[in-house]
Amino acid sequence: MKIGIIGGGAAGMAAAYELSLKGHSCQVFEIAPFLGGQASTFMIGNSPLERGYHHLFRSDQSMIDLMSELGIQDKLQWIDSNVGYFSSDRLWPFTSPFDLLKFKPLSFFDRVRLGITTLKLQRMKNWEDLESITAVEWLIKNLGERIYTIIFEPILRGKFGKYYDQITMAWLWNKFALRTASRGKGLLGRFKEQLGYPLGSFDVIFDSLKTKIQEAGGEVHTRSRIEKIRVVQNKATGLDISLENGKSEFREYDAILSTTPSYVFTQLVDGLSKEYVSKLTDKSYLSAVLVILVLDRPLMPHYWVYVGDRNMPFLGIIEHTNLIDSTNYGDQHIVYLTNYLEKEDRLYKLDSEQLLAEYLPHLKSINHNFNESWVLDYHLHKVDAAQPIVTINYRDKIPPHRTTIKGLYLANTTQIYPEDRGTNYSVRMGREVAGMIDSDFE
Question: Cα(first)–Cα(last) distance of the chain, in Å?
């Protein structure tokens, strides 16, 4: 079977790899000049770095298994991580239960209450009970206004903007489950979070996938735009493509998989049922906006800091070189300042120089010694459709992977639930949909 795949991110490349293993011929088309989607990289000196910070959790079994299959498991390193939380004008360690007990913005009673509730959430298996209630409602009911206001409201507002009070508690539950699964083993390991990172960046995964697909007789194209998915008698028959060489052509396929955002998918194809289209058009997304600083020295002691002060114009600070040694980047220190914004937001519309001027003064709150002279270089990356808005009873709103057009499939981040979007779940989804395509063909 000959299969056309739209999108060279984790889902599209994993699907093409899986279908290749099953003996099918796959052709992947990516509009960007690079593969990897949200895990794609650019160069810092001679080293590739993700446009958006990426790591793996211990529970990310789909990606771990894939790296093993590809023979690059030796590239994956597990590293002790640490987290901070900025609140009440200072940076608080927030890695272990002992750190929580020292968190003075909350009363001692509230600290204990938060710790007990966190433990309950981590051990909860039946997350379906949380689908029909918002995170805001559940948190206030179970933790009280003060804990919600100091800890969770800033995170929800920073992550989801105006949609913060519509997010299902099932989404937040998954965050607690992930962090538990990434703890180390043994008595002391239970209090240490370990995160995984492929040495050489996530490029090593996508480069290996590309090689395997091509060795199986498939094709992988970048700088290639899909103009239209052709449909004849409710059957997907092929793609109108503008290729990287500037030529436009039509290619026939037995099946087509799109990994584009839902709003892009509706522009590529006609003939979907009204009910299916409604499950595509009711989805909202926020864009990830990332300013990446290259510093001549460390900014902070933590890998990851949540910003609990919404007067700061960004949600989080991720010092990549507190996870991966700075010697990999010429002894330079890499810091991401991250935000999730609507395209209409004032900050989204700023250019890199304007956004840098907006952000830098706030770093003195993180490190009182910070000086702009520390900044050797900076970069701005915007990833549209990065964060779907996950509302209550979201499971009922997810469009099936099999569309209402025969031979046409969809796999995008709106279909990942209750987990948050991420490379691991995109790999899992891509391989699962590849199994559907193979099964339907048989």
Answer: 10
pLDDT at res. 136: 97
Task: Show the tokens assigned to 362.
Answer: 């706030």
Provide the CA 254 distance to its chain's centre, in angstroms.
31
Write the CA distances from 211 to 9, 16, 17, 70, integer angstroms: 15, 11, 10, 10
CB 302 within 8 A of CB 322: yes
Strand runs labelled E in 69-191: 76-80, 83-87, 90-93
- CA dist 398 and 412 (Å) reads 10
Give Cα separations from 178 to 27, 56, 304 (angstroms).
Answer: 34, 10, 15
Cβ 218 vs Cβ 210: under 8 Å: no
The predicted pLDDT at position 182 comes to 47
* Listed residue (294, 287, 313) closest to 381, CA to CA: 287
Please give the average pLDDT of every successive group of 10 residues along the chain, which has 442 residues.
97 98 97 95 95 93 97 96 93 90 95 93 88 97 96 93 96 79 47 88 98 98 98 98 94 98 97 97 95 98 94 95 96 97 96 97 96 97 94 96 98 93 95 98 84
- CA 350/CA 287 separation, integer angstroms: 14
pTM: 0.94
Closest C-alpha among 414, 47, 15, 61 to residue 220: 15
The pLDDT of residue 278 is: 97
| Residue among 10, 134, 19, 62 nearest 413 (CA) | 10
Return the closest-CA partner of residue 54 out of 71, 34, 38, 33. Answer: 38
Cβ atoms of 407 and 255 within 8 Å: the answer is: yes
Element of type H or E holding 231: strand 225-232
